[in-house]
Write a structure and sequence with these properties.
Layout lengths: L12 H35 L4 H20 L5 H14 L1
Helix pairs in contact: 1-2, 2-3
Length: 91
Amino acid sequence: MGKEKKKKQKKPTAVKRILQSQKRNKRNTQFKSRAKTALKDFKKSIKNKEPKEIISKKLNLIYSLLDKAVKKKIFKKNKANRIKSKYSKMA
C-alpha cells in the first residue's frame, strides 16, 4: 500500500527543446565573448609593441579558441579561417 513508486513525468518535447536551446545559447555567447576578449587583448598588445614571444603566445591562444569554436559549431570554418588570417598578418 505505502510503497507506490512515483512515475517520472515526461516533458513535452517542445519544452525540452526550448530549454536545450537556451542552454546552448548561453554557452555559445560565453564562448564568443571569450574569443572577442582574446582578440581585443591581441590588438592591444600589438598597439603597445610588446615582445614577439608574447604576441605569438596570444596568437596561439586565438588559434586554439577559434578551432574549438569550429569544433563546437559556434563559428563556421571559413569565418575562423578569415579571423586567423587577419590576425596572423598583424603579427
